[in-house]
Amino acid sequence: MAPWAALRRAAATQPRPRLASHAYTGPLASESGYQLVVFSREEIRALALPVRGEVTIGRDEASNVHIDDPAVSRRHAILRLGDRLEIEDLGGVNGTFVRQTAQAGRDNDTAHVNIRQLVRDKASLAVGDCLLFGTACVVVRHAPQIELPDLQPGVVVHDPAMRTLYAEATRVARATINVLLLGETGVGKEVLARAIHASSPRAKGPFMGINCGALAESLLESELFGSEKGAFTGAVARAGLFEAANGGSVFLDEVGELPLATQVKLLRVLEERVVTRVGSTRARPIDVRVLAATNRDVEADCRQGRLRPDLYFRLNGVALLIPPLRERPRELEALAASFLSAACRDLERASPLHFSVAALEALRRYAWPGNVRELRNAVERAAVMCTESSILPEHLPPSLLAAIRTAPGPVVAAAPSVAASPADPQTLQSEVRALERTRILEMLEHCDGNQSEAARQLGMPRRTLVSRLSELGLRRGRMPG
Q1: Sign of the Cα pseudo-torsion (116, 119, 122, 127, in order)
Q2: pLDDT for the residue numbered 219
């Protein structure tokens, strides 16, 4: 029998990709969030799994998972993906061995291992389960996230487009070329800029940032380039942003807001790598990398004369476009959970908070025009307003709830027990409560009335589910299947 414990530990401890590391050679993204890790002889492969469909495993080179082992049949097994993971043995001589680890019960702290052989049979799989095909072992695991070094809490990279973006940032970070970050306000341009700096050879140097649209033109120039004593009223001799960041990186946020006169001076700094303080004639050499960001259409600004084309071409060594949050639905819940955890720490709450099903549904239905920044603010507000253990829709900002109510979308039908007079307009609160009631009933039915399992699949503690059953007028006892 294969050394199952060692194989499982090896799968769990496979190196995860970092922006500054290149030891990991498997796929960076998985459409379903799962991967197969194949241990075959001395080779280790990580294969991304689709959301739905079938993955063939066998000795045939046409198989999706090719295993070159004489003990493996040409078409040995099929892995099916959809609402659940399932493996089916196709009747090979040696069959398929499945090693599953069952979770410990309340009265038993030790998990037990179940090993079974499939011959023309099927079995459901879970993350961490191992499959043995001849001398090869295949382990089902969650697709690894890209870990970002030296970033503030709450950074999440789950969406395939974002994984591709950060993979590009990996390559860009090693170079000295200037980078232009594009995207709507609040999408995380500064977060990406910090990631590039932290993964670059300049990581030990300073990272200095400024919002170019937040300061008046006269003050902006002294902040960027420094000033000499007496250059203007109240001026003192001081180094500007470029001098202070020598050996590191400068982040110019909203660079499209720069006045034209300042753009000319910035262009000279980028081309000649020298800076002249306001009120001085002496050029000082600098060694900085420029990371610029804007939410404007820079090409349109160039055509209309608001941005100098030569400055644009100098800044645009490499352009990285960050997609808005509404195009990254897989990251919404993870970001919200991360922000909520951070908010609970800041508020020093004795017990952690979690989102109710209805609150998560409200977050999903909102368009998030302010992107990640707006999501963080909404979650922090909810953490302050919530006095219970579960965040409900009424704890979210009223503007968010109003936008959901007026936005086009599928109508959520109210359950019969939720009273709503035909003459009175149904409130959003009653709608989300009806949705929550329906989802809870469906999950209880799916779990044959097992409240502990239903609570686990709904992502809430059992005591919270029991409390919601009482509030919604549902039976608290175990429901018949």
Answers
A1: positive
A2: 85
Q: Is 45 exposed, middle or buried (0-12, 13-18, 19+ CB in 10 A)?
A: middle
288 lies in the same domain as 371 = no
Domain match, 400 and 275 both: no
Regarding whether 123 and 13 lie in a shared domain, the answer is yes
CATH number at residue 9: 2.60.200.20
Task: Give the side-chain half-sphere CA count within 13 A for 126.
Answer: 6
Mean residue pLDDT across the chain: 78
Structural domain span for residue 119: 4-142
DSSP one-letter string for 291-322: EEEESS-HHHHHHTTSS-HHHHHHH-SEEEEP
pLDDT in tens, 448-458: 778 888 877 77
Give the C-alpha separation, 132 to 4, whole Å.
9
Q: What is the pLDDT of residues 293-330, one digit of tens each?
A: 999 999 999 999 999 999 999 999 999 999 999 998 88
Alpha helices in 79-208 (DSSP H): 160-173, 189-198
Q: What 3-state DSSP class applies to 415?
A: coil
Crossing angle (nearest 10°) for helices 451-458 and 428-446: 130
CATH code: domain of residue 364 = 1.10.8.60
Cα–Cα distance between 92 and 410 in angstroms, integer? 48
- Let me know whether 308 and 344 are in one domain: no
